[in-house]
Amino acid sequence: KILILDFGSQVTQLIARRVREQQVYCEIHPFDVSAEFVREFAPAGVILSGGPNSVYEAVGWHAPQVVFELGVPVLGICYGMQTMAQQLGGKVASSGKREFGYAEIRARGHSELFRGIQDRTNDEGHGLLDVWMSHGDKVTELPPGFKVIASNESCPIAAIADETRRFYAVQFHPEVTHTLKGKEMIARFVHEICGCQHDWNMPDYVTEAIEKVRAQVGKEEVILGLSGGVDSSVVAALLHRAIGDQLTCVFVDNGLLRLNEAEQVMETFARNLGVKVIHVDATEQFMGHLKGVSDPEAKRKIIGREFVEVFQAEAQKLPNAKWLAQGTIYPDVIESAGSKTGKAHTIKSHHNVGGLPETLKLKLLEPLRELFKDEVRELGIALGLPHDMVYRHPFPGPGLGVRILGEVKKEFADLLRRADAIFIDELRAADWYDKTSQAFAVFLPVKSVGVMGDGRTYEYVVALRAVQTQDFMTAHWAELPHSLLGKVSNRIINEVRGINRVVYDISGKPPATIEWE
Ligand code: XMP
Hints:
binds xanthosine-5'-monophosphate, glutamine amidotransferase, 3 domains, ten-stranded mixed β-sheet, 32% helix, globular, Rossmann-like_a/b/a_fold, purine biosynthesis, ATP-binding, GMP Synthetase, Chain A, domain 3, 25% strand, Rossmann fold, alpha/beta
């Protein structure tokens, strides 16, 4: 396995993704882990990430020296190159200006890292590479034992190597797709230079994960809050495969789910897979507590609190349960170097079940802790979950509660559910569902005038929202074909009595958010 030490780059997770695409297991840890940690991890190779600092300014931001003493290959990327150079006796200085964007570099001499890898050759037959640069400092003096293996005019020392010790460093970012041959370089590093096998693959992982759960849980019982979302669904399928009837799922219908969602969850899990699922219809309870509340954050709090309440009551009926399973995934638990600069590491703040393990005195079972989202999906498919469930758009924990603006009423939820289902149906039919990252309808509690037949109507408005995004931090509104929007609008107005106007949201994020509340 490969150890990735994070120096705070925005794209450290991409390094891990690229390594795992090569079917090699890796983990990201902050750069300041202890020497004992590194030794115990026993990596086949180490990758030092990029980062926002300058090596000559950021005191203490270097790799544990043991990394260079283990006798395993090391790859430094950007800041990782600079700290490697400095720690091994070279020099780093400011370039005077930041270099950002595409650059063409020329491979020089023979290097194991670039051997046979090039985008094209120049007149003299030297290999040229298109790479992505983003740096303000550069290595100006080589550490002893190193040679230059790539350069260009603005960056004469663009990549270096000490082939004897198998230390490599590049000033550019091989982990981003803009570096066209980056994938091949990572493959070369992990397979040929570090000697890692292709042993991180889903079928093997399924077997391994099942064994791990069995060993951890033994004969004890487990409870899982099943929401119908991807993560909890995959946990349910995995645990059921591993421990069968020792698993009990609690599915809480808060009255704010999508059309037929409860039926679909019960069908997939209870009927088809034979999972024990307790279906709690708590619509009345949620609606009762939401009455008269229109502030979005207050609504979120109430929905979260009532969920805990209902879940707890169900859990208490299962006195033999010793474990609470959760769908925590790897991006939720990576402790990045950012935490050193005061930025708290990422924790899913909207985790509905926060606090539950303590009050219920349950041990926490998190079988997806090591997986990225796309690996969770692959696992879901490997476990036989339906494609449409595994590739479903994300749905917020508070559900339609934040898609009905202002006060939530059952009558509004019923209208919205139907409008939303029509929108999603038509998106699927037009092959647009997979081209959007999230799409849904929003209920606006304002009435506008319309005509229907001979009469005037005075009914509610629905807004359609569809966005495209990589990370949900920024998003573009989807340029859906007008004909598709027209069809959705017609169907909603004709089929959902109570709505006489449909509008399309054309705001980007930022400044607008994806949800309306
Ligand atoms: P915004 O609206 O902030 O949404 O642009 C970004 C992503 O987060 C989801 N979201 C939530 N998910 N509980 C959740 O579980 C929430 O309270 C919540 N609010 C927003 C939203 O659906 C989108 O995917």
